[in-house]
Amino acid sequence: MTRAGIAAARSSTAQLAEIIPQMDDERWDLPSACDGWRVIDVVAHLAALASEAVDPPPPDPSLPKNRERYHDLRVDERRGWSHAEVIEEWRRSTPLQLDLLEAAQEPPGADEAVEVPGLGTYPRHLLANTMAFNVFCHLRNDMLAPDGPLPFTLPEPTDGLVAPAVDFMLAGLPQMQGPELTATVRRPLVLDLTGPGATTVTILPATGPDGQLTVVPGADAAATRVHSTALDFIAWATTRKPWRDHCRITGDASTATPFLDCLNII
């Protein structure tokens, strides 16, 4: 199970909760590092996800299929809310979301496949890692300096915070972009991530015309390698930062470049 994901989600959520009382209206309205979203919109996004986890809305075929556009829609629905209303939704729904994700670690439902529209299908227990990734990434990259506008300082990221986020990203990597990303990997490619959240995996090409990429632990000794810190991986693999500023390639760069140019974890 992914109890580390629950611990990471709770920890990043607690860090956000410590910052909220230090905010004022002016800071809430500052543009975040997430394009088109103010700082309060980032919280609205987290609040919307929490509310939907607690009280899932009925299926609506008119909603955007693209996950990023879907997130924009949910944020836009809250743009007329006061800051206090957005924060109240986040405070009300987030603890319930965390409790649901913790309950999802228990059998028999823990391994049940759950489709997340636009993102792929995951075992239910891994949904805790989606929250660990989401809160950590938005808080650290979009809200707080140096990339975001808020001048608050948090403790240095630990393995316990970073590894669950990376685990979700690697689980989503073969699924989120489908054939578009699959077509960029013709030979095995190693991701060698260091520092907090360190891991080494090999990305294997699809074995058939309708197949997906496969991510397996360890390194194919003959493969081209992409070296980065795991913390930087969270930023560049979500296209928040250029991969060329944070990656070193050993081996055949032409094997890695199309994949790195295409990758966009949501």
TrEMBL record:
GO molecular function (one): isomerase activity
Matches recorded under Pfam families: MDMPI_N
Mycothiol-dependent maleylpyruvate isomerase metal-binding domain ranges (all copies): 10-138
Signal in keyword set: no
InterPro entries in UniProt: DinB/YfiT-like (IPR034660), Maleyloyr_isom (IPR017517), MDMPI_metal-binding (IPR024344)
rRNA-binding listed as a keyword: no
Keywords: Isomerase
This protein's name: Maleylpyruvate isomerase family mycothiol-dependent enzyme
Organism encoding this protein: Streptomyces yaanensis
